[in-house]
Amino acid sequence: MMKRVASLLVSSLLYSGCAMADGSIVVWMTDSRPGYKKWLETEAAAFKAKHPGVKVSVVQMSPNDAYLKIPAAAAAGGLPDVIWTTYGLAPWLDGMKGGKLADVSDLIDRLGKNRFDEDALKQWSYRGAVACVPVARTPTYLMHRADLFKKAGLAAPESWEDVIRAAQKLNDPANGKYGIAMPGKTDFSPRFAYGMILYSMGGSTFDTQGNPIFESPASIDALKVYKQLYAYSPPGSLNFGFSEIQRALAQGRVAMTISNPSSMATFQRTNRDEGSTLALALPGKVNRTIQNQRGWCIADGKNSQDAKAFVEHLFSTSSFAAYLDAASISSFPVYHDQAAYDQFQASNETVKRFPGATDFIRRHTVGTMPGIDGVGLTPKSGDLISSGQIESAINRMLANDMSEQETAAAMQKETLRLLN
């Protein structure tokens, strides 16, 4: 563990904004999909052509690595100049020593405040201002093989009982086929899968007064559904995270998974059989799912003006269209540039193959982040996300170390500890 921390401190010293020479900015992309880095490096070169005195260095990592590297970077002397992150982490970044965020109200005004979704600006609000520049919301859905459902005589699932029955019927371990891929790894995927089930059943992780309610009947019911579905997941699913569940779906090993719409892009690239089709569903009582908003946070430091100029460049029509293509329907924009969106719709291969997907996403994006849904943006919201208390408890439940009730109690206890 000490070697791991030391390694993170060294890498943070190398990559944090304060370690770079004048005229250079460092951008952390906290999403490990390769399309994002390619897009950012292309835009960094285009920006440098217009601003020869400014070099942009792009560093890519997974969200889980970012949870460790961000505090290490702050401890080493400061945050990188620009960070792509979820809205719940913004106050966490701003509150840590060496982590103060720049005021981006001037940048939002230049981009056009009326071009951002009002809901997005509200969700990113912290201490009377918008903490970072909102870009997109990433919802979570049930992804299912519509062709396999049709072949088996199954209708599109409308309830979690339907999903469980479909997983059972489509489960064929003897032939290496399974009903559904459920994540068990301690990355963010179990949080989102549990949250999507919970929200669509009408539940929440906090009440309206900001008190955690992980032991509510709805939460325990959601955990029961999770565990029932896990019985039809492939062997080794305790080590399945975001990449593994998407890969299992794309390779035809499973008929369903719970993930964001980037699963469709992975499927489109991997499974070229046009007869294999995917559809999105939101089973449950209410039209509510996970909505993980992502955006650009800018560190308050000597490079903040150059950093703002680079982020502003990323909102130009050509760059924003390229971002949408890199995201490939995993995220739905909260910034409105119709020309960029039209370019994306006309050129993206995933949209062409699944033409109804973007309309479904547009109609089903209501929700928030499980674990902070009743807290909002506070310095504690970063701890509630980065601590992994939901993911760890679900991992133990799936390993048969805890019952659903014990799992709910563990999440409740750890959340209360983090809040106090």
From TrEMBL:
Keyword Nucleus: no
Main localisation: periplasm
Subcellular location: Periplasm
UniProt GO cellular component terms: periplasmic space
Signal peptide: 1-21
Gene3D superfamilies listed in its UniProt record: Periplasmic binding protein-like II
Keyword entries, A-Z: Signal
Highest taxon above the source species: Bacteria
Family statement drawn from the similarity comment of this UniProt entry: Belongs to the bacterial solute-binding protein 1 family.
Protein name: ABC transport protein, Solute-binding component
Species, as recorded: Bordetella pertussis (strain ATCC 9797 / DSM 5571 / CCUG 30873 / LMG 14455 / NCTC 10739 / 18323)
Source organism phylogeny: Bacteria, Pseudomonadati, Pseudomonadota, Betaproteobacteria, Burkholderiales
